[in-house]
Specification:
By secondary structure, this protein is α/β, with parallel strands linked by helices. It is 34% helix and 13% strand. The strands form three sheets. Strands 1-4-3-5 form a four-stranded mixed β-sheet.
């Protein structure tokens, strides 16, 4: 982890009055980590990272008085109060987990360990969200080492960390409700686009979907991402180079406000398409030549000034609004220049994004 990324994490923690600590696993557990890599050398040469093994050291890195921990993969959105998850009592079970079958996924289709019957399909769990009983896990080193050896000897069991945990703890887990590890990829397959107070796991998704703001899970992800220090021009630029989608679709999540669109009849369809306008969002169609319509627009904007961000899709209205006291890139955004499907070739159109 770079110094810049550590600093960004600290900024987030400080904003929410939380304490953040970094532990260098390679320094603290170097010998044990080297032994694991020796037993499973493919972790250094696969699309996985050696960091997948770090979760096995959590019971020993954290102080002995810490009896429980939550482990989350990096592709997780916690869309609920995490305290609800934390309060679950595990008893003598080493792990609290969500079963793959509860997400509607038959694990034998992708896990050779399940396909071979080493672990029963109905017991197989996803390792991306774990409630860890550290009191129990501190006494499981030999069991985990046996799982590592077994997985290392069978190359076809390639979901390394997940296979190890399933091999070691198949029959000893505490079964959690599926809402604590809801797999977004499967919800998309099932065409279940209902977003609730749940923990969402974006495993196996394609980044190309990230700009499709008709997808509520993309909107959820962006609604959190724009609150972090990572949101900025550089990431927008990278995404634009890898997609043909309109950058304007980011505006589906203006921070702290709802969206309203002001269009003329000629360009209404293009604005609705470029901005992925939703059914519940306000669209105001006006004739820009009619002074009464312009006055009506100003009255609406004044009444909803603190509640809505207005996207003005009609040329030459912005100067009139500014003359009436409205502030561009705060009260409204002039998007009248973004009708062309090749608009992304225009350079440095980032003010709309950064203002959010």
């Amino acid at each position: 982890m770079t110094e810049d990324n550590r600093e960004k994490f600290l900024q987030v923690a400080e904003r929410y009055n939380q304490l953040l600590e970094f532990h260098n696993v390679e320094e603290l557990c170097g010998d044990k980590l080297s032994e694991m890599i020796r037993l499973i050398p493919r972790v250094e040469n696969s699309h996985f990272s050696v960091a997948m093994l770090y979760r096995f050291f959590i019971p020993h890195i954290l102080p002995s008085e810490v009896e429980k921990a939550i482990y989350l993969d990096a592709d997780i959105i916690v869309n609920l109060n995490i305290n609800e998850f934390w309060q679950i009592e595990l008893g003598d079970k080493p792990l609290g987990v969500v079963l793959e079958v509860d997400n509607g996924i038959p694990p034998s289709k992708y896990s050779n360990m399940c396909h071979d019957g080493v672990v029963k399909e109905e017991n197989y769990f996803n390792s991306g969200v774990l409630l860890m009983n550290l009191k129990v896990l501190r006494n499981e080193d030999d069991n985990i080492l046996a799982g590592i050896k077994f997985t290392g000897e069978h190359l076809k069991y390639n979901l390394v960390d997940q296979e190890i945990l399933n091999y070691c703890f198949e029959t000893r887990t505490f079964k959690l409700p599926v809402k604590f590890n809801r797999l977004v990829k499967q919800m998309r397959i099932d065409e279940n686009f209902s977003v609730n107070r749940e923990i969402y796991h974006y495993a196996g998704g394609k980044w190309g979907l990230g700009l499709d703001m008709a997808d509520p899970f993309n909107r959820l992800w962006w609604s959190y991402f724009i609150k972090t220090p990572w949101f900025g021009v550089d990431i927008i630029d990278k995404m634009l180079k890898s997609t043909q989608d309109s950058m304007l679709q980011f505006s589906v999540v203006p921070y702290g406000k709802a969206r309203a669109f002001v269009v003329d009849e000629e360009h209404a369809h293009q604005i609705e398409r470029n901005f992925s306008v939703q059914d519940d969002e306000k669209v105001i169609v006006i004739d820009p030549e009619n002074e009464e319509n312009l006055q009506r627009l100003e009255d609406i904007m004044k009444s909803d000034r603190d509640k809505k961000s207005f996207f003005i899709g009609i040329p030459n209205i912005a100067p009139k609004l500014m003359k009436s006291g409205f502030i561009e890139e705060k009260d409204f955004f002039d998007v009248s220049g973004f009708y062309s499907p090749t608009w992304t070739s225009r350079a440095n159109n980032y003010k709309l994004i950064l203002s959010m």
